[in-house]
Amino acid sequence: MGDFFATATQFPVVLFTFPLVVVIGYWLVAALTGLGGDLFGGPGGSGDSGAGETGDPAGTGGFAGLLAALGLGGVPVTVVLSCVIAVAWFVALVGTALTDHPLARVGVLLLALWAGWQATWLLARPLRRLLGFTSVARNADFVGLLCEVRVRCSATEFGQGLVTLPDGGTALVDIRADGEDGAAPLPPGTTVLIYDYDPEGDFYRVAPAGAAADPLG
């Protein structure tokens, strides 16, 4: 046990040890006070979407915009941070125990951050479904609208796009590009047209907008 605590207070794992203690304390308080029910109860009565985007154009910037760009939108920030910190701490703990060279431990830090993001990214999609955090009117009503790619996508790779709604609001949705396998993915910033909705996969099929993005141009 002494070796465990000694390792947990060394670089780089120590960078995640205190945040992990905060995360554990937060969820214990949430469980005891019932705060967790509010966090997982859906968007609530304010009319906000679970994606944190619909109806709030400003929500696409700042920290929420960063999470969306990283493919972590649509999940409560507390859940995202908890997953990233927990995974990064574990990876950093193992790496710290196996290495003692300063440069190697810097590599462990980078690996821990990447692993935390990657694991949370993989969990984000099923978590959105499990927690019921879905965008308003997330169905075939979006077909025919233009969408800006936020996380690149291809015919075989899911991404995310930002749809501007008629009322001025926005919604972050899962998208998949049209085309054959092996085609170049659509990069962030590309304007695409939503042409179909897959109810089983709960994602939208998109294609480059072309003239539809600027009919007067």
Notes on the structure:
This protein is of the alpha+beta class. The protein has two domains: about 1-35 and about 60-140, no CATH class; about 145-210, Nucleic acid-binding proteins (OB fold (Dihydrolipoamide Acetyltransferase, E2P), Beta Barrel). It contains six helices and five strands, in the order ααααααβββββ. It has a five-stranded mixed barrel with strand order 1-2-3-5-4. The longest helix is centred in the middle third of the chain and has 30 residues, at about 100-130. Mean pLDDT is about 75; it is low at about 40-60 and about 135-140. This is DUF1449 family protein.
State the distance separating the first and last CA atoms.
68 Å
Largest sheet, in brief, is:
5 strands, mixed, barrel
Mean pLDDT over all positions:
77
Number of helices: 6
Protein name: DUF1449 family protein
Transmembrane segments: 12-32, 66-91, 103-124
Keywords: Membrane, Transmembrane, Transmembrane helix
Structure described in brief:
By secondary structure, the chain is an alpha+beta fold. Helices cover about 40% and strands about 15% of the residues. It has two domains: about 1-35 and about 60-140, no CATH class; about 145-210, Nucleic acid-binding proteins (OB fold (Dihydrolipoamide Acetyltransferase, E2P)).
List the helices and strands and how they pair.
Elements: H1 2-8, H2 14-33, H3 35-39, H4 62-69, H5 77-98, H6 102-131, E1 146-151, E2 159-164, E3 170-177, E4 191-198, E5 203-208
Parallel strand pairs: 3-5
Antiparallel strand pairs: 1-2, 1-4, 2-3, 4-5
Transmembrane segments: 12-32, 66-91, 103-124
Organism: Streptomyces calidiresistens
Keywords: Membrane, Transmembrane, Transmembrane helix
